[in-house]
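Explain my protein.
***
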Amino acid sequence: MGARRTWFPRVHCQDSEPPGPDCEREKRYAELFDQLDLNKDGCIDIRELRTGLAGRGISRRSLERLVQTGDTNQDGVLDFEEFTQYLRAHEKQLKLMFSRLDRNNDGQIDAAEIQHCLHGIGVDISLEDANRILLRMDKDGTMTIDWNEWRDYFLFNPLTNMEDVARYWKRSMMLDIGEQLTIPDEFSEEEKKSGYVWRQLMAGAVAGSVSRTGTAPLDRLKVFRQVHGFSVFKGNVLSGFQSMLKEGGLRSLWRGNGINVLKIAPETAIKFTAYEKIKSVMRGSNETRNLKVHERFVAGSLAGAIAQTAIYPMEVLKTRLTLRKTGQFSGIADCAKRILQREGVAAFYKGYVPNLLAIVPYAGIDLAVYETLKFAWLNRNIGVADPGVMVLVGCGAASSTCGQLASYPLALIRTRMQALALEKEAPKPSMLALLHNIVTQEGVAGLYRGISPNLLKVIPAVSVSYVVYEYTRIVLGVDIEGRRAGKGKG
């Protein structure tokens, strides 16, 4: 391979090729090859592609598929001939897709044409969403996409048909309704019937389980500070961990994590089912009507409230198990049995009202900040593909932090109400009375007690969720763009 040097990209139009567009195309391929061949050995490998195309938001899986498709001699890299051969074939496919979208044959694609085409393959989006898709590719600000913009946007993404493009676009149409649990919006009927929806949701549940387990020690410290912070845990995060380790050893840091993980699956299933039903009610007789952003937010918030109502007893159990001392309960069933015997069924809904009230500010601010940051990035990088994982992680961490800051006082009050029964003969104040007591005795800062470990877990929790989510989708048979993946690791 050492014989192939940088002279290879300096190609001239062959005699058999007419001058003009084909010549310009070959020169463009040569320039791209030279830019991507970072070590100048005449070949491009997967590492060079990832480095050279890092700003385009293309997944590793897509780049691996690009190399596999173009690598005709199976040596694991692309030489100049393989590179240009792949791009020629891919441009032909892109041209066919462009022509299919361009219904009036004016050489431009507008938002209505995007909406119409996606509707034809079972993906219904609003004109507003179609405009958002268009803006990512519109480099010249004309609110239309010409062939050059279309080609440049998808040139290195190995999508082969409009169904692939629709799934690629749909990745960004995710409705976040709190706690880093996202609901992919507007699934097609085919995807619902094929089981794709539930594989997607299962990937989210697995990601949530791994993320919560990884950050469980910080979550336990947060709960301890929320309940006992003013009287017991006055030190920093490190002293809090030392106190827990002294009382129960290393395993004690994960108390309450079991039930916290167990509640993910039912909560996700109920949330998604309720969301679909609420959307159907909102559409009424017009089943094809696209919901507006505020309507989807209302549907998401209501779905979150329904799911929280159904699984709330598990939230109470999680708090009690998190706060338990060594030997206090033998397990989840024993904890539930004792609560039922001593306090009755009503105990399983202590703190329910502040928990419900916290859903709207958390979900609303989280979603608004996430969308604002993501589209601010897209507007600053016009013509670039979807943000990469690091950008999305940053947006998710910032939005989650803002959502938590807004809803944290309600979350603290909920946790204290859930835990009050652990203290014998302790008064059981109402939500407003507890709020007054905290502000009077601890000041406004008391409403944010325990927030430091909570903020510390945001970035690792969001990062782990994204990484595990993407890899779990591949394992379950659905790759990054939503297509069925082949067997093996890929």
Q: What stands out?
A: The CA atoms of residues 36 and 52 lie 5 Å apart. The first strand starts at residue 43 and ends at 44.
